[in-house]
Write a structure and sequence with these properties.
The complex is a heterodimer of chains A (259) and B (292).
Chain A lengths: L3 E13 L2 E14 L3 E5 L6 H9 L6 E10 L2 E3 L1 H4 L4 E4 L13 H11 L7 H11 L5 H4 L9 H14 L4 E5 L7 H17 L3 E6 L2 H7 L2 E6 L2 E7 H6 L4 H13 L5
Helix pairs in contact in A: 3-6, 4-6, 6-7
Chain B lengths: L2 H14 L7 H18 L1 H4 L31 H37 L1 H15 L3 H12 L3 H28 L2 H8 L4 H37 L11 H8 L8 H28 L10
Classes of the chains: A alpha/beta (259), B mainly alpha (292).
Amino acid sequence: MSETLTIENLHVAAQHGHHDHVLVDGVSLTLRRGRILALVGASGCGKSITCSGAQGVLPPGVRVTQGRVLHNDTTVAPERLRGRVVATILQNPRSAFNPIRTMADHARETLRAVERLDGDWRSRTLEAFATVGLEDAESVLPLHAFEMSGGMLQRAMIALALLSDAPFLFADEPTTDLDLIVQARILDLLDELARRRNLGVLLITHDMGVVARLADEVAVMENGRIIERATTREIFDNPQRIATRELVEAHMSLYPEVA
Amino acid sequence: MSVASLDARASRRRMWRLPIRDSWAVRIALFIVALLAIAAIAAPWIAPYDPDAVDLARRLQSPSLSHWLGTDHLGRDELSRLIYGTRVSLGSVALSIVLILALAIAVGGLSGYMGGRIDQAIMRFCDCFLAFPTIVLALFLIGILGTGMVNVIIAIALSHFAWYARMVRGLVLSFRQRDFVLASRAAGASRVRVFFEHLFPAIMAQMIVLATLDIGHMMLHVAGLSFLGLGVQPPTAEWGVMIGDARPFVWSMPMLILWPGLALLLSVMAFNILGDAVRDRLDPSLHGDHQH
């Protein structure tokens, strides 16, 4: 049996005065190493909150009311999960870096967070940067986020995720803020890395094109619940639920030739 | 070396160039502040006399070659006392600011991080401090703590920290949900580390501006409380004490009030002008060539 990460019966609620507003309503997911699971749904359906809820990094006033996360069938506290078991790629690479810190600072921070900062951090960072296709990695180290392009930054963020050597990866809309050409390259990179490094990926997206390209399985979310799960092929060939069909049809109407 | 990083170098260099060339007012202010700093550090070497040496035979003398600014009612050299007074003024303000920043970051940081009821409770507590003018609050605190330099520093810190704490809280609130803070948390960094890595530098930049704007104000507090006999106690050479000491001789030797008063006026003005210049310099919205 391969290594797994399971989110079990996750409930997340936002507190409004004295009553709770449910954002995630009993979501269960299982990631396997070497497999890419796409979590799709319209904006505001609770995809990102599921991800940050599992990691325990919810915004103020929002909390996990029920549920747990299991790593190989043992319960793990969210703070033990972060960085060590799960690396994260955020949507907007430009704001995901501290504007006053260099790439080298961020790499050191990432390594320090998982207690892997040692004498050869530099060579490991350069290696990770090279792996994600940042040419001339040496010259990238002293750069700040505002000195780099969106595509470079997203690559740098993926490099940081690799640096922590976590077996699982949460990618929250990793290509939404990039232009189409860069998107395609980043998706290829993610695909290749997931296979090569045998990562278990939770890919959060509303873009069915991304799903078609990368995912092995798909879970569709609506109003905080998972309403359908199937392999990628089944989702495209034979969507069961209206929301799924809408997502697929919206995609097909935009890119008819891909079908 | 890429073009982008050269650009960044240049903009950093612009950032660090002191605001000397900005205007003659800033230049003079900077000169006065430098003079004060030298006087404070090198007081034992540049002061012509011991500031506490009483010489009753030479009391209340007018300025002369041996006593440039004259002598006070106990025959102490006015210039030496003025120079030593710089130490007390700058030293007590510096210590107050350190204390204020420590308190503000602890209280404001806690408030911003905890949120909810704790945040509300802490902020209402701070409102109690904000409700009174700082000098009234300082007088009240000295009434409780007693007089003396240490108590003045504590009183000034307690009467001012709430302003800073409120700002720290606001900054923590605005920063803690930034993407790069989330990214850092998701990468496994602890709250404490995230605070010092990402929030602290942003907070300190703002705090330094606020503090430089407040230095003059706090100097006036120290001198004012000392003048009233509530702060630094005679015979310590301190500007407020000197003005207080000279009060009975306001008609016969008005110069004795003039010198420390002038020193106070000039240094407060200098720090205020410099504070404004630092604020302008660090405000990114005021210069377009700086990118973030």
